[in-house]
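Field reference: sequence -> structure
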Amino acid sequence: MQNSANQTTKNKGIYLLPNLFTTAGLFSGFYAVISSMNGHFESAAIAIFVAMICDGLDGRVARMTNTQSDFGAEYDSMADMVSFGMAPAILAYNWALSDLGKIGWMAAFIYCAAAALRLARFNTQVGSADKRFFQGLASPAAAAVIAGSIWSGSTYGVEPTNISYLAALITALTGLLMVSNFKYHSFKDVDWKGKVNFLVMILIVTVFAIISVEPAIILCIGFYLYALSGPFITLKSVDKIKVGHIVGDDPSDIPPVDDKK
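Structure field:
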């Protein structure tokens, strides 16, 4: 009886390492909100990218160190809602949408609500969905589209009031992509522990070097291409377009993508 009580006590607690990365991502998202409120839009956009890095590390660290937990999964979802739901929506609103009145805050709300729905749907599909693909644009990638656009606009001196309607359209459409049925590569099938050819390492170094030249515009273009890849992959895999291929509860009639083609 005493051993059982000791075991229960031992199991209580929170794994430190993966949740440190989650907390860092949450802080970055919160910092992005505060920075955007103070007019520091470039810093806010960069903070969202930092949150993306932290979000990519916490799960992998948890799996590598065998420290997965239900608490960590829930905490990660809450942090993602702040960093990739609230923060990009508020950043977009403060940068370009506030002058549009109701249109501006509606576009920001569509994005924010879509991020919440996307995260909720993802949590209910864990263990049943094809791990090679995301159903809908992942919230970190959607946040990167918004943050990359604003980072590029701030870097190159774009006047937000001149593109406010375009910014509203991009914000709303990015949100709708999150709740769509379009298939996006998740890259979860990559063997990060495996060995690669030396040329692959040279290619990776080259990619980092290219990004370092103009990080704002290159990251922005990269995530725009990724956002557009979902409709392309999905529409390419079907013979006849149906509503269920784009939006709906059951995308099961979408045939799997054959990577060997």
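Note: Residues 70-97 form the longest helix (28 residues).
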